[in-house]
Amino acid sequence: MRTRSTRRRFVLGLGRAFGATALSAVAARVLRGGSPDAEFIQPPHRYGWQINPERCTFCNRCERACVRSPSAVKAVNDQKKCSNCVACYGHLRDLRTPSHLIATTEDLVCPHRAVLRSELFGGMDGAYLYTIDADRCTGCAECARLCNRLGSRSMFMVIRPDLCLGCNDCAIARACPSGAVERVPLFPVDDFRGEYMPDQPW
Ligand code: SF4
Ligand code: SF4
Ligand code: SF4
User: Fold this and answer.
1) Which residue CA neighbors atom 6 of ligand 1 most closely?
2) Is any atom of ligand 1 closer than 6 Å to the C-beta of 88?
3) Relative to the alpha carbon of 139, which ligand is closest?
4) What is the pLDDT of residue 132?
5) Mind spelling out the 3-state secondary structure of 25-62?
6) Distance 27 CA to ligand 3 centre (A)
7) Residue nearest to atom 6 of ligand 2 (CA)
């Protein structure tokens, strides 16, 4: 009995010693002015995967190859490049559709109605804003493919850092036929901050 209780005291003492050492290390950092959170929560180098827009051919494998379902890959529309057309190649299947019917037509590019269209100014034949509803987008790349082939090339595909699991071996990188998915270092500023919008839109 005495041996067991002595061992227990020894183990408890060891635990306390470790705890005290860890706490004093944190305290020392705080006293030095460093942030304990930054050091303990975030590793100094964080890696993720991203799509090189120069290489992506919008083949649509991103939609099914990702280990996440729906895929961590989403379309985005760069508002600095978008021409804000009445009829958008990434939104509407038939660009001959009369402008007064576009708002109600069912003949849309996106099978999930994730490409959203809203009026900016000028009425029916004015300027329109196109954005992607990421909750509906499955990453099929069809809107971006048409925009890049026929339009102003403002739509493209991204692996969303806030959705990606950061797999060691990205399944999309293995499946991509054009080697467009690259492993890149990530920093806090790289975390997804919403649609690519200019500071002063209009
Ligand atoms: S067409 Fe495909 S990539 Fe574009 S918004 Fe719809 S689901 Fe996403
Ligand atoms: S790293 Fe994993 S979760 Fe992220 S895009 Fe690739 S397969 Fe999907
Ligand atoms: S698999 Fe590669 S080429 Fe195909 S859409 Fe994804 S990134 Fe683009």
Assistant:
1) 110
2) no
3) 1
4) 96
5) HHHHHHHHCCCHHHHHHCCCCEEEEEECCCCCCCCCHH
6) 48
7) 170
**21's tokens:** 């050492």
Residues with CB under 6 A from ligand 2: 49, 66-68, 72, 159, 164-167, 170-172
What are the tokens at 141? 């790349």
Give the CA distances from residue 166 to residues 32, 66, 72, 128, 143, in Å, rounded to whole numbers and listed in that order. 33, 11, 10, 35, 25
Reported residue count of the chain is: 202
pTM for the model stands at 0.75
Dist. CA 165–CA 121, nearest whole Å: 40
* ∠ CA 67-69-74, rounded to 5°: 95
Nearest CA to ligand 3 atom 8: 56
What integer pLDDT is reported at residue 27 of this predicted model? 33
Distances (CA, A) of 9 to 1, 16, 17, 20, 21: 12, 11, 12, 16, 18
Q: Where are the domains of the chain?
A: 2-41, 46-190
pLDDT for 185 equals: 84
Preceding peptide of 43 cis, ω within 30°: no
**Could you identify the atom of ligand 3 that is nearest to the CA of residue 52?**
7
61 contact partners, CB below 8 Å, separation of at least 6: 172, 175, 176, 177
Instruction: Give the residue carrying structure tokens 């009445």.
Output: 86
Mean pLDDT by 10 residues, the chain (202 residues): 51 42 36 45 70 95 97 95 96 96 97 97 94 96 98 95 91 98 80 52 42
